[in-house]
Design goal:
Structural class: mainly beta
Low-confidence stretches: 1-14, 20-45, 474-482
Strand content: 25-35%
Number of helices: 13
Number of strands: 60
Length: 1012
Amino acid sequence: MWGYRIVIFYFTLDDVLCGASLSLFSSTPMTFATQFWENPDLEKRALLQNYVTWDEHSLFVKGERIMIFSGEFHPFRLPVPSLWLDIFQKIKALGFNCVSFYSMWALLEGKQGSFTSEGVFDFEPFFDAAMEAGIYLIARPRPYINAEVSFGGYPGWLQRISGHLRTCSSDYLPATDNYVSKISTIIAKYQITNGGPIILYQVENEYTIGSPIIFGTNGFPDADYMHYIEDQARNASIVIPLINNDAGPLDHNVPGSGTGEVDIYGHDFYPMQFDCSNPSSWNILLFPTYFHTLHQIQSPSTPYTLVEFQAGSYDPWGGSGFNNCAALTGEEFERVYYKNNFAAGVAVLNLYMIYGGTNWGNIGYPGGYTSYDYGAAIAEDGRTLVREKYAELKLEANFLKVSPGYLTAVPELPIIGIYSSNLGVAVTKLEGNETGDFYIVRQTDPSSTSVIDYTLTLPISARSITIPLINLTIPWLPNTITTGSLTLDGRDSKLMVTNYDVHGTNVVYCTADILTHQQFDNQTVLFVYSGSSRERNELALATTTPVKLHGATGVNVTGSGYGQLLSFTTTPGTRSIAQFGNFSVYIMDRNEAYTYWIPELDGFQPSLIVKGPYLVRNASISGNAVHIAADFNITTEVEIIGAPLGITRIVINGVEQSMTPGDLGSLVTTVHISAPGLDIPDLSSLDWKYIDSLPEISADYNDTAWPTAASGELHGSTYGFHAGMLILRGTFTADGTSGTLNLETQGGTAFASSAWLNGSLLGSWTGDSSTASKSQSLSLSELTNGATYTVTVLVDNMGYDENFIVGLDAGKAPRGILSYSLSFGLFKSTTIDWKITGNLGGEDYVDMVRGPLNEGGLYIERQGFHQPNPPVDGGKFNDASPFDGIGSPGVGFFTARFNLSLPSKEWDIPLAFQVPGIGTNTAGAYRAQLWVNGWNFGRYVSNLGPQTRFPVPEGILNYNGENWVGISLWALEAGGASLPEFSLSAGTPVWTGRTEVTLVGSPSWTERLGAY
């Protein structure tokens, strides 16, 4: 299956390190666990610290009950440390307070026993940036991370151990000790107990499914294995709570289960799965309505924790592209599915991914391409915020941020036909126990795109009230109507409240969504918003203060038994304010609400409310000035609501702005921007240089320095070659004038391979999105009997497979030649003597700055010519460009230098390289690698795609100085290959309040000792 061979290893007692008993055969059929238990004795789960504690509702951090709203962000997918703060600030601006991160073992211990965490692999700047942004961290460093990275994060040398991965095998667990000790010690230093931002530590990832062939019926999960890896963490001074991440709510290692139990149980869930080809199609079979009930059975005394909940999707080679993935998990998905999580009482919610980044330098697995955009809220391309799903998240997170009663409210089951007579409406109540109630209102069929009208009957103050209380005329709808009902759009969900406290004023009920509320020096404000213009809402406010309307359109206010009753609709792009003395209700539609930001101020001051900018990073008060760090992509009017009395100055990004008064004491200014002119070089006009990067196909090439490969071990991992291209050269003596070479190669899905005989192409496999290995029968003709020949095989290693199912060891599927035979007739087989190479040095890799996976086995990579300033004038290179290409099958390398001079101190300018569209080369299939200042930032497959645009961040690109770009071009078919399109282009410049980007060290070429 999956194009690789599965080798089953049988355990004996001598094979087991941590005491697990692994049964191979049993008469009892294997079933999922159905017994759930939790030990209520807190002393048996004694805390090692008192900074992070918990009860059945939520975490307490330093004694404060807190909702953890988190997003996943992997620092190794953005190898520019000075940009990590940029991402943290964009996450903080959502209203989030946490980030979850993986570390990738393969990047830190490329050679067994040699752990290094420096430069772009140093975690301390990541932790420091989180603290600067005010973000907590969830550490998920454990050896296996999955994460759509090669081998699930394992270093390639782990392929050579005989025992099963993720088990008590006596050669597996000791192999993890060095990495776990080193990375956990780094993490321990930055725990919250030591003044750092890290509050939780995950001990294993998706340790959920074990092979019954290996574990039998009762051996999985292996409690002793979990106990061992938990001890690894504790022995490295990890004292914060330990969590797990079950791949679904399957109760593995829950608190109270005994040996191997975690402190807080968590699981993940991906309801939309991973097919982005039809983003409007929702899979409602996985719509979860049972989360709370199941949690009460599995782990009732811990807060409900979703360690990963879907916020995008991976996309395979030949896929539909990440914009489709963003649409699949877009703003409608967020409204329905995330609010459904709130209906289950989730108290720790981590969205995977909030920013995806880039699978640069061969870190990806075979199922994905260079981009790891993931369709996330923050896009890979320039870390932009143009997806509506980012804005929707901001609304939801900011509501929870000001609604502490949510955390102790008790969810009920979703109910149909009780709170509403319309059976198309499902309502879930979260009972607040005197802190107000919350109601999640959605359509019974969450995938429905129909608009439905309904009424609600809610228990309020010991009475049942049917809402809406009054009819409302909506004049701007077609055929002006008067309605006595509420409206719910398709694929929408409302979060309504009753008896909701706003700084001492009771909101009796509100059918509109709440964005935020704040209490300032002289006023209290409540911001509410509706969905579409056809939606009407009601808000009952317990006050008798007369109302004064400002800019009001579609707002009616009447007295009621509860005080004042607001019934309203909204007009797109407008805002109404209903002022009741020093209490004001701001009413708007959703798109208008998107334009507001709620940055925190230092200390115990209320947050400001800022309308207008593309992004607000942070705000502070200094003397009589409000200082704001913000980003702008167009000229924008900025309104500041809630500035303290006495503020007379507005300073944005260090520039003082003119100021005028706005509504109800707000401050208004206009930020004028004019996008700078950008001088982006035309890549076709550069002084390109060319060198043959596959001289190995020549029969007279000298491969004496290459490792000799045993005939049954033609796999890269055997010799320490784990990334990029593999080259194998075999010599044989012809036993006739014609023969057949049967060759089975394996590189992972979407791989390619080519074979040459004395420089002539025998054949290529150009690859498809589902084939991981390929058998070919290649004809050899016009040979001279008794003569010596050389066959050269080039195999594209697309990364190692992941190792999700424990015991199958899928990640050990090798790369290279699986099998071969050479025959000169029916009974005349001939041996071949093989040599093999990958990156120079293998696990003793040369480039310590860019890490162990950045380079493969091509000639130019082994020589280091992909780095800046290669010896283009030394006679080895010729004049030629990738636009000219190569005329025959092989690999050519093209390189050129160019300068940039961009105003990057004040402007965030996204840059990306563009290559031709898929299938546009009439000469045949080809592949290309993009090198930028020595960093591998792109793998392009002309016949599969889908990626044709390759963003490269500032810091890898030198925005004010010299750069080198390289293209390795592999022509797989007879017509050769060229790049008819290759350009560098800029996205929309943004005037930015971020800190200045620091150039990453990118060592230039120097002659490499022993390079061949």
